[in-house]
């Protein structure tokens, strides 16, 4: 009998939550077959079978298990069913840790055993069902082994009108355990509010110039780089250049010392079905607009599908949060410790503004910079945000970090 224990997933992680079993007690599993999903403070990961045999579940869904804790046992001497993988030779009882495997994006592959994934959605399908408010029990699965595919989820959401809805005037309540990710988010938010002298300064930016560039070069850019030309690359580049002028905004406090960085690792806030995560774009100051857009797309997809690694969410010297994608017109973002500042982007909205004494309609966006006043003075914070605004309204300055004419004239 081989014991399956929780492996060490990261140096700072001592406990995980067993969020979902992907097999049933008594199922025959094959080597490297995903058997369960565990949730850490920042992400979800799958554990796989270390040997073929009949599995006996020890831990239950929702249990908090210490690293090294027993979650299941596999009887490798059990005879494999006809459709299972080739039976392995009997082995002595051993104690091993289940390897952590990255969750794979949904793909149509042949699985030799049947029934292990019955009723379970793929990561992409789960996201669709969660956003559509559809329960897995109400979905007709068509995938191999009874797995719910992305197409099944889309169809179920479309047919939601035919699914029994909540009764009128219902007053029922339900209590569910807070996920480990949500618990960590709540703790960090409270810590940020209580441990920093946080203030927020606001400004607004005219997006006319950037919109023109995107409209004129968007198709060519996408054809060449295989990624869309979004706003995040412009904002990231503007932030990097502004941080060069105001390095305190890119610093943080550590043991009563100020730590400055000669690089910019930008954390981008990504909304996932399990909460907000902040993966990091390393050395954003050295990337082109295309490089930034590719990295943003990669991290966003990984966050949506639960594929982000601990390393991809660790670190960061400055954060950008885009509440505008959800329709937010203005907000006060909360600092992501130990960082000292966070920039909040918002919805682009046509508004009347005065330009050269005339009232005109322009696509405007409110910007919000929350900062730690212990490190950043009011003058620095306001000047930093004005610099970001200047780069965005005059994107030609992003190329050289200054006005080309002023550089030409050595001003």
SSE blueprint:
Blueprint: E1 2-5, E2 15-21, E3 28-29, E4 34-39, E5 44-48, E6 53-57, E7 64-66, E8 70-75, E9 95-97, E10 100-101, H1 123-132, H2 150-158, H3 180-195, E11 198-206, H4 208-225, H5 232-245, E12 252-254, E13 257-259, E14 266-268, E15 270-272, E16 275-277, E17 280-281, H6 289-305, E18 318-322, E19 341-345, E20 349-355, E21 358-372, H7 378-393, H8 397-400, H9 404-408
Helix pairs in contact: 1-2, 5-6, 5-7
Overall description:
- This protein has three domains: 1-103, Beta Barrel (OB fold (Dihydrolipoamide Acetyltransferase, E2P)); 117-164, Irregular (Dihydrolipoamide Transferase); 181-408, Chloramphenicol Acetyltransferase, CATH 3.30.559.10.
- α1 (123-132) runs parallel beside α2, α5 (232-245) packs across α6 (289-305) and α5 crosses α7.
- It is an alpha+beta fold and 411 residues long.
- β20 and β21 form a beta hairpin.
- The protein is 27% helix and 25% strand.
């Amino acid at each position: 009998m081989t014991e399956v224990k929780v492996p060490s997933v990261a140096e700072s992680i001592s406990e995980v939550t067993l969020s979902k079993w992907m097999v049933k007690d008594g199922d025959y599993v094959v080597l490297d077959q995903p058997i369960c999903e565990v949730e850490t403070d920042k992400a979800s990961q799958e554990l796989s079978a270390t040997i073929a045999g009949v599995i006996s579940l020890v831990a239950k869904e929702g249990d908090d298990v210490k690293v090294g804790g027993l979650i299941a046992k596999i009887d490798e001497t059990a005879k494999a069913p006809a459709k299972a993988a080739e039976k392995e030779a009997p082995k002595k009882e051993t104690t091993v840790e289940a390897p952590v495997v990255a969750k794979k994006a949904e793909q149509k592959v042949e699985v030799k055993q049947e029934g292990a994934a019955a009723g379970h959605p793929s990561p992409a399908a789960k996201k669709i069902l969660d956003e559509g408010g559809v329960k897995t029990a109400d979905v007709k699965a068509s995938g191999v082994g009874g797995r719910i595919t992305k197409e099944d989820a889309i169809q179920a959401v479309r047919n939601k009108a035919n699914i029994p809805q909540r009764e009128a005037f219902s007053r029922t309540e339900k209590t569910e355990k807070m996920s480990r990710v949500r618990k960590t988010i709540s703790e960090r938010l409270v810590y940020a509010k209580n441990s920093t002298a946080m203030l927020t300064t606001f400004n607004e930016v005219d997006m006319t110039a950037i919109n023109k560039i995107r409209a004129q070069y968007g198709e060519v850019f996408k054809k060449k780089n295989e990624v869309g030309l979004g706003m995040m690359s412009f904002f990231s580049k503007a932030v990097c250049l502004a941080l060069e002028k105001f390095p305190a905004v890119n610093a943080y406090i550590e043991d009563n010392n100020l730590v400055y960085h000669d690089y910019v690792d930008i954390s981008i806030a990504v909304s996932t079905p399990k909460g907000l995560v902040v993966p990091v774009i390393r050395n954003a100051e050295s990337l082109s607009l295309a490089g930034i857009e590719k990295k943003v797309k990669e991290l966003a997809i990984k966050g949506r599908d639960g594929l982000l690694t601990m390393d991809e969410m660790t670190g960061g010297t400055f954060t950008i949060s885009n509440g505008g994608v959800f329709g937010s017109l203005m907000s006060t973002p909360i600092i992501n410790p130990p960082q000292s500042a966070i920039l909040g982007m918002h919805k682009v909205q046509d508004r009347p503004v005065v330009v050269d004494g005339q009232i005109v309609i322009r696509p405007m966006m409110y910007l919000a910079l929350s900062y730690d006043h212990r490190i950043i003075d009011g003058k620095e914070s306001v000047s930093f945000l004005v610099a970001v605004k200047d780069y965005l309204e005059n994107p030609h300055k992003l190329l050289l970090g200054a006005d080309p004419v002023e550089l030409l004239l050595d001003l």
